[in-house]
Design brief:
The structure holds two protein chains of two kinds. Chain A is an alpha/beta fold. In chain A, 37% of the residues lie in helices and 14% in strands. In chain A, helix 6 packs across helix 7. Classes of the chains: A alpha/beta, B alpha/beta.
């Protein structure tokens, strides 16, 4: 049997030593509960299973040149990232309940928290959450609890995947969830201003937003704080290599999807949700937090801290039901940021913006292709209008070897002809040129 | 050991980045930019490799040695699953591809993995359908309770409370509360099981459901479990199975056959996916036929022509609870594991896990108090009360175990056992390993009587000694800022 060490002889010896028979082991389970043979496929050997999965992997078309983003990006991953995160001392460990034998995981989480704070210019970060969507939901729950209010305003320039998640999670809660419609690609100040009142717990926005447009929420923060509300911003971490940070904008809770920090796209997960906030809100923050302390000999070490917020102590009064984090993904992001360093992250962000700007020029020079929004700053993603149905064009470009972008009609009414195109540092000038040629050919 | 930031040398680089091959260089408006670069460390690749290799050596994993952390099922994580998860055909697949026109056809391999994992889990659990989306066990709980709420809403039921035993994992009450329910704790009886009489007393039309772990956190199988489910059903409530301890009965008992309506599984426990230092996990949720319509969007279906597709039109669904299809990389590992086990392999897992737990229980029984001495399933829970009388507490025993080279059991849980030591060996461990652990435990028990100080001043073999947790909370230092 795979992965069982004991032999039949050893099992027999063990049973004899404790005076039991094989039947005794399940004698406490009423007979009628025991099932017979399950209808499962015959067990396969390692070789068979590898062959089978290689065949299935081969049915996934990963050769498409990727201009698909939507919050999930095809960035370059340095080789050392996998080499280090695949060390089994990291990945076969569990939650660091025993700090003396878990300093590796604990220090890494502390460094990850520090790295997220430095990146976002926020004061504190937790040890990570499941993904960018659940991180945004947790931030919203935090704001409701911190303000004691029940109204949330969310602009529709926030990733629609996250917005539908938040709708699911809040369905049974007494929350007034207001969605404002973006104003020419940016968070709609006027609509938000109209909704903002003394019942509002938070305004939720995103930067760069789902359309790739770059915003500055300094004015929104001032507006919200005057009414005692908080501002929550989801942010694309790579963009923070160059863009103004949530901390500098006066945002109260910054969240985001950390996949771009060294994680493969892996068909939707595992990913990494990050959340960072200001010091006064730290006790409202969900999930695990690692803190620095000392042992009796004055040696510095790390432990899980502020656990009084958490479910294993507070049970139904906890700040969240979360009882884990995405530790290995947080480690991945930490290793990635350590390798890129201060200058590397800036370069990657600038490359993304430069290549996107080149793609913008190339694509909008095709007759019939126009930018959907008026002149706006974009980071690495842009909305373009085509002369015909975008979903249809994307389908035809797949046949030519491109995942050319995402059709916005899936989430936005009246945007049937609009395509969202993403460009990362991995895309070459030649690939962008070929996309432009292919697009022109299919129009 | 120094922090990664403290090793930074200005100007040092860890990665050569391709030079720009485009002529454009965009100058964004200055007030949209950050003032100064993020203060990330400046290191060479070798610096980074040495730093994280050193950190890894300050960690303890299943690959290091025996890790009997109760209720966490720290079994061996097969290397083949790691290798397969890294296949480019899976690792480099963009999750939005199937949402493009003809995109489903381009992801048939991944969709087949999701579809077949669903079928395998249905058969193993006796459920009618699964969602793969929840990204951890607790996330699965929340998803399950949201489906419970959707069911009652659909039926026009006015339900307010969820019953949960006092021995339950803390996530159970937290999940129910976050989904909007009032939690009522059901006391355990003298045998450590959910008290049937108390359930009867607490039962009324307001009860939306019950959340049970079976075997429970004491490692005990509740023979009245079907009666409890029937009672809950009598008020149109739903019975929720917390699959945290499925490893004890996998392949032998199906939660569906016990009367449960909703099941969440922790793939990182029973199905051997790595715990990752605390995640990523995966918490698929299965439901019986009457709840299938409420499963989250999307689910994978098999068409008549044999191809796989994502189904989004599900009017009664609770909606999206994850951005895509769950932690695919983790689901894939569990799928590999199940394919290698088959029916016989799964049954062998449960049988060996239970044998190993009972072996430890019987061997240590003379040396530690055992509040619930009956046959256990996957884990046994001792109480260090005898040792505590000598000033040696559960935590001291844990630290002495560390010095012997093992990971300690789960401490102080479940809360209904004083000085709890919760030991779960899993099926993977050999008799030699168990014997060495047992010997260590007996030695510590003896030293607690004869030389308590030799236990209370452990650990001595670790890079740091016992850390001051009060100081950590009071003088909060949770980030090194630039």
């Amino acid at each position: 049997m795979p992965y069982i060490s004991n032999t039949d002889e050893q099992r027999a010896a063990m049973l004899a030593e404790i005076g039991m028979t094989p039947d005794d082991l399940f004698a406490d389970v009423p007979k009628e509960f025991l099932c017979g043979k399950l209808d499962l496929p015959e067990a396969r050997s390692e070789q068979q299973v590898r062959d089978h999965l290689a065949e299935l992997a081969g049915k996934n078309h990963i050769h498409l040149t990727c201009f698909l983003g939507g919050g999930f990006y095809d960035h370059f991953i340095p080789s050392a990232v996998y080499a280090l995160t695949s060390r089994s001392e990291f990945y076969t460990a569990y939650t660091p309940y025993q700090p003396e034998v878990s300093q590796g995981t604990l220090q890494a989480i502390y460094e990850y928290q520090s790295m997220i704070c430095r990146l976002t210019e926020m004061d504190v970060s937790n040890a990570s959450l499941y993904d960018g969507g659940t991180a945004l939901y947790e931030a919203m729950m935090m704001a409701l609890s911190a303000t004691g209010r029940n109204k949330i305003i969310i602009d529709d320039s926030v990733n629609p995947i996250y917005r539908v998640m938040i709708q699911s999670y809040t369905r049974n809660l007494k929350i007034e969830l207001i969605e404002t419609q973006n104003e020419d690609g940016l968070a709609n100040r006027e609509a938000i201003g109209k909704q903002l009142d003394d019942k509002t717990a938070a305004i939720i926005v995103q930067n760069p937003n789902f359309f790739g447009c770059i915003d500055d929420f300094t004015d929104l923060s001032e507006m919200a704080h005057k009414k005692g509300a908080l501002v929550i911003s989801s942010v694309y971490p790579i963009s923070l290599g160059i863009l103004k940070t949530p901390g500098a904008m006066g945002v109260d809770i910054a969240t985001g999807e950390g996949q771009s920090l060294g994680m493969p796209m892996s068909f939707g997960g595992p990913y990494l949700g990050f959340i960072a906030t200001r010091k006064p809100l730290v006790r409202k923050m969900p999930g695990r937090i690692v803190g620095q302390t000392m042992d009796a000999q004055g040696r510095c070490g790390f432990v899980l801290t502020l656990q009084a917020r958490e479910q294993h102590i507070r049970r139904d009064k906890a700040t969240s039901n979360i009882c884990s984090n995405e530790a290995l993904c947080a480690l991945t992001a930490l290793v990635y940021m350590s390798l890129l360093g201060k200058e590397g992250l800036r370069e990657v962000a600038q490359l993304c913006a430069d290549k996107a700007s080149y793609a913008y020029q190339k694509l909008t020079s095709i007759p019939g292709v126009t930018p959907h929004f008026r002149a706006k700053w974009v980071f690495n993603e842009m909305v373009l209008d085509l002369p015909c149905d975008a979903a249809d064009v994307i389908g035809r470009l797949i046949e030519k070897g491109f995942a050319a972008g995402f059709p916005l009609s899936r989430y936005y009414k009246g945007m049937e002809n609009s395509i969202l195109v993403a460009v990362t540092e991995k895309r070459t000038k030649q690939q962008i040129g070929m996309l432009a040629e292919a697009l022109e050919a299919v129009l | 050991m120094k922090l990664v930031f403290e090793k930074s040398v200005p100007g040092r680089r860890g990665l050569t980045i391709s030079k720009s091959d485009v002529s454009t260089s965009i100058n964004l408006k200055a007030d949209l930019l950050r003032d100064k670069p993020a203060e990330l460390p400046e290191l060479s690749e070798l610096d980074v490799v040495r730093h994280f290799t050193e950190l890894s050596r300050r960690n303890f994993g299943v690959d290091t040695n025996f890790y009997p952390l109760g209720s966490c099922t720290m079994k061996y994580n097969p290397k083949v699953a790691e290798r397969i998860a890294a296949y480019p055909g899976f690792a480099h697949l963009h999750p939005l591809i199937p949402q493009l026109r003809i995109g489903g056809i381009l992801t048939q391999g991944a969709l087949q993995v999701l579809y077949e994992t669903d079928l395998l889990l249905r058969e193993i659990c006796g459920m009618a359908g699964f969602t793969m989306q929840p990204m951890a066990g607790a996330h699965g709980e929340l998803t399950g309770i949201m489906m419970m709420a959707a069911y009652h809403k659909d039926r026009g039921n006015k339900k307010t409370t969820v019953l949960i035993p006092d021995s339950a994992h803390g996530t159970n009450p937290a999940s129910a509360a976050i989904a909007g329910y009032v939690v009522k704790a059901v006391p355990s009886d003298d045998n450590g099981l959910m008290d049937l009489a108390k359930v009867k007393k607490m039962l009324n039309d307001e009860v939306a459901g019950v959340m049970l772990t079976c075997p429970n956190t004491l490692g005990l199988f509740n023979p009245h479990v079907r009666e409890i489910c029937d009672l809950i059903h009598s008020v149109d409530g739903l019975a929720y199975y917390d699959g945290a301890n499925l490893n004890a009965i996998v392949g032998k008992v199906r939660p569906g056959d016990l009367g449960f309506d909703i099941v969440h599984l922790n793939l990182h426990k029973t199905f051997a996916t790595p715990h990752g230092g605390g995640g990523p996990g995966a918490g698929p949720v299965g439901v019986v036929e009457k709840l299938v319509d409420f499963l989250p969007v999307s689910i994978v279906v098999k068409r008549e022509d044999g191809t796989y597709a994502l189904e989004y039109k599900r009017p009664k669904s609770i909606g999206y609870i994850a951005p895509f299809y769950g932690n695919f990389g983790i689901i894939l590992r569990a799928y590999v594991y199940m394919l290698m086990q088959g029916d016989e392999g799964l049954k062998r897992i449960a049988e060996n896990a239970v044998l190993n737990a009972n072996y430890i229980k019987e061997k240590l029984k003379p040396h530690y108090d055992l509040p619930h001495p009956q046959t256990c399933k996957h884990e046994c829970v001792f109480s260090a009360t005898r040792q505590a009388a000598k000033g040696v507490h559960g935590i001291d025993i844990a630290k002495a175990i560390i010095d012997a080279g093992f990971h300690p059991p789960t401490m102080y849980f479940p809360m209904i056992v004083k000085e709890a030591l919760m030991i779960e060996p899993t099926e993977c461990e050999s008799k030699e390993t168990l014997d060495a652990f047992i010997e260590t435990m007996i030695d510590i028990a003896k030293r607690a009587q004869t030389d308590p100080e030799s236990v209370t001043d452990c650990p001595k073999t670790t890079p740091v000694g016992r850390l001051d947790e009060t100081k950590a909370a009071r003088e909060l230092n949770i980030a090194s800022l630039a």
